Amino acid sequence: MIFITGAxxxxxxxxxRKLIERGHEVRAMVRPASDRRNLDGLAVEVVEGxxxxxxxxxxxxxxxxxxxxxxxxxxxxxxxxxxxFKANVEGTRAIMLAAADxxxxxxxxxxxxxxxxxxxxxxxxxxxxPVGFENMIGPYKQSKxxxxxxxxxxxxxxxxxxxIVNPSMPLGPRDIKPTPTGRMIVEAASGKMPAYVDTGxxxxxxxxxxxxxxxxFDKGQVGxxxxxxGENLSLKQILSTIAGITGGKAPGLRIPHNLIMxxxxxxxxxxxxxxxxxxxxxxxxxxxxxxxxxxxxQKAARALGYAPRPAAKALQDAVRWFRENGYLD
Length: 329
What we know:
By secondary structure, the protein is of the alpha/beta class. The model has no long low-confidence stretch (mean pLDDT 94). It has a domain of 216 residues: 3-Layer(aba) Sandwich (Rossmann fold), CATH 3.40.50.720. The strands form three sheets. The protein has a seven-stranded parallel sheet, sandwiched between helices. Strand 4, helix 3 and strand 5 form a beta-alpha-beta unit. Helix 1 crosses helix 6. The protein is built from eleven helices and twelve strands.
């Protein structure tokens, strides 16, 4: 039996489908109030639990030989960051300890490239690029950095057989929330991004990220981490590709980061005042965009046989899914 967290989410549901395709029996832990559409029609045992309630974890893991801990609070802005740290850091520690108690034999922990260092210009970072907590911008990156450190510490102290994977910017079907990156695709495909900033991202298909998880489970070296990425593209290239898919017009206006910063400050203040969702532009998001977030997946390619498809396919599948499911105007 394989245990998975985050199966109702974007990356987790893709990992769940891969596990089922391979013939694994899977038990998925979901919160009582979770949107379970991504589980519809799947042969999976569902148990209710919560990472922030450790008492729910031990019994849920009983009898499981493997764990995929994919769940995370992924937001680029939060009016109160405390719940994010509780879920991502304390929740990760809790489920690792529960896995140790349950005798789980093999664990794949889903971290993020957000925990890795960045290099100047168009250089691609890898798993060994130097970085420290002081380089983490915003509560999401900070919480994931601390969570990965917890996993490493517990692997040593509890003898857990953990392999860490660091996905980049996954795109594709079933982003029901959608994630912050998914919202960017929706905005661009709807023609609501008339301008762009000079930044870059590593784009990968969510199903390739899922395949990378299973490769890490089967072939990954305990204690190692592997970037599950795809192609490095500038934001201008991403938006041009989306325009080609939709038949729309790619934005031609590049705006300096510092010119948009006052807009982000006002957007965050307005969101706090009104109690709305995440602002359409955030201060931390702009601070991160000042560097191109380019990464190399060559270690995963060599060690695991990881081979992602072209980024254009990820963008195409994402736009198609959002269109077919009513997200696009």
